[in-house]
Design a protein that fits this description.
It is built from 8 helices and 3 strands, in the order H-E-H-H-H-E-H-H-H-E-H. The protein is α+β, with helices and mostly antiparallel strands. Helix 1 packs across helix 4. One of its GO terms (molecular function) is methyltransferase activity. This is Cyclopropane-fatty-acyl-phospholipid synthase.
């Protein structure tokens, strides 16, 4: 979940991924994304998800992902928006399952605040996907090696 990495660590994360791939390896990433035009303000602002769901993390923008991929010598061969409508339905189902099992969750020692936080998260994100404010992308591609590296291996 790239959302846990955080804006300031994306370069290091992608560089680490590149360094652990075999020469013919393929890097596949699924990412919930923030729109490019909102990204700069988003990373500077506090928010519910940053505080309660992904502390220290952030939703990357698609431009940020492509930029750090290129910096880490990862070439994007395929990019697909995997349908926010389906993620909307998934989040609604997760919320319904949470509420259907509320008593059992409380019996495990979790409190009402825990239930409210996760119910809000599921509804909040479902609305983000329904309105296409949030994207859900799969990115994949092979590692890029310069000619010198190919010859020397």
């Amino acid at each position: 979940m790239i959302e846990h990495v955080g804006h300031e660590y994306l370069d290091a994360f992608f560089t680490c991924c590149e360094s652990h791939l075999a020469q013919d390896g393929i890097f596949v990433l699924q990412a919930i994304t923030m729109p490019d035009e909102l990204y700069e303000e988003y990373i500077r602002s506090p928010g519910f998800i940053k505080e309660y769901i992904f502390p220290g993390g952030s939703l990357p923008s698609l431009s940020r992902i492509t930029s750090v991929s290129a910096s880490a010598r990862l070439c994007i061969e395929h990019l697909e928006n995997i349908n926010g409508d389906q993620y909307y339905l998934t989040l609604r189902s997760w919320r319904d399952n949470l509420m259907a099992n509320k008593d059992e969750i409380l019996a495990l020692g979790f409190d009402d605040k825990f239930i409210r936080v996760w119910e809000y998260y599921f509804i909040y994100c479902a609305a983000g996907f329904r309105t296409r404010t949030l994207g859900d992308y799969q990115v994949c591609g092979p590692i890029i090696f310069c000619v010198y590296v190919r010859i020397c291996r």
